[in-house]
Specification:
alpha/beta; Alpha-Beta Plaits; 4-stranded antiparallel beta sheet; elongated
């Protein structure tokens, strides 16, 4: 149920109403929609409580049904798009596109310095890099850990960039959050529910990648775990899914952008690097993602992809990244949008 409260209700009265619902065995999450308080009942709706009982509660103006299992992520609950403030940048506004770029894995401070300097000068605002790497083979490079996070933090500050890096387990949350601006949950961990709940207890923005075979509803329910435990700063990421086509690494689902934006108020970004796995196709898919309405693009860039310790074939060279940014700016301009600076 969604309880739309009266326009003249006070914060104190909202709190009393929450306490009343809790006494009834219901848990409601407050928010504001177009200047009015809204209470979304997220737990306890299996109890036999009728809409007529809610409308009789003090301060309640309307009672609306909630048709989806995902509640806090749903556009039924929040029609205004969520805009997340990250440092001096924001993501989620329909007129702006954020670009995140960097190597798949942090390999050295020099590598990160070269990459950060270039992507910043070309127009990116977020430096990506993996310090803890989930690899298919246990013998592949697993990342530098906290040292890699420190390298990212140093060079990002030097060139005025924000940072994003993946968290693989609960014990990595605190150390990653102490160095990094945006925490990423990778595709393999999209349904690691204990990790999702623990990430929900942080105050950091979280980029949640779609699982390799996950439906839109499964992605939104994964996001619901984070929101329901207290963190509303979630960014959804389409990164390609497994299909019958073996030519590319995955099949990038461009339709996910407008569909997810219709189902949810959360920002949606696209990762064309993992979506296709072949660097020559990444720029075209990045432009297609912007055309589809993505709020951001996250791509892999490496000073020397042929020598990369992870995902070299899909990593753009530095000149390729610069050329792609020119195309993205042109595409954004044609849609009356801009690349975040």
């Amino acid at each position: 149920m969604i309880l739309v409260l009266k326009s003249d209700i006070t914060p104190v009265e909202v709190k009393r109403l929450e306490e009343k619902l809790a006494w009834m065995g219901l848990h409601a999450v407050p928010s504001q929609e177009e200047g009015r308080y809204v209470l979304t009942i997220v737990h306890g709706t299996d109890k036999q409580v009728q809409a007529e009982q809610f409308i009789q509660l003090p301060g309640v103006d309307q009672v609306l049904p909630l048709t989806q299992k995902y509640k806090l992520t749903s556009s039924e609950v929040k029609k205004q798009r969520t805009v997340i403030q990250i440092g001096n940048q924001s993501i989620g506004a329909d007129h702006q596109v954020m670009v995140m770029a960097g190597p798949c894995a942090v390999e050295s401070e020099e590598q990160m310095d070269i990459t950060a300097k270039h992507v910043a000068s070309a127009g990116a605002t977020v430096l990506r890099g993996g310090a803890f790497k989930p690899r298919t083979s246990p013998y592949d490079f697993q990342g530098l850990g906290e040292i890699g996070l420190r390298y990212m933090q140093v060079v990002a500050k030097k060139y005025g960039l924000l940072t994003i890096s993946e968290v693989m387990s609960i014990d990595q949350i605190d150390v990653t959050a102490s160095h990094i601006d945006i925490l990423q949950i990778g595709a393999r961990n999209m349904q690691n529910f204990n990790l999702l709940k623990a990430m929900g207890e942080t105050q950091k923005p979280i980029l949640l990648k779609r699982g390799l075979s996950a439906t839109y509803h499964e992605l939104l329910l994964a996001a619901e775990y984070i929101l329901s435990t207290g963190n509303s700063q979630v960014i959804l990421c389409e990164r390609g899914i497994r299909t019958f086509e073996p030519y590319t690494r995955n099949t990038l689902d461009i339709a996910a952008v407008p569909v997810l934006q219709s189902l949810s108020h959360l920002p949606v970004v696209v990762d064309p690097s993992h979506g296709v796995g072949i660097r020559q196709f990444v720029p075209a898919l990045a432009c297609a993602s912007v055309a589809a309405g993505a709020h951001g693009i996250i791509v892999e860039v490496h000073p020397n992809p042929e020598q990369a310790l992870s995902d070299g074939p899909q990593s753009l060279t530095l000149p390729q990244f610069s050329d792609m940014m020119v195309s993205l700016q042109a595409m954004a301009g044609a849609l009356n949008k801009s690349i975040a600076k």
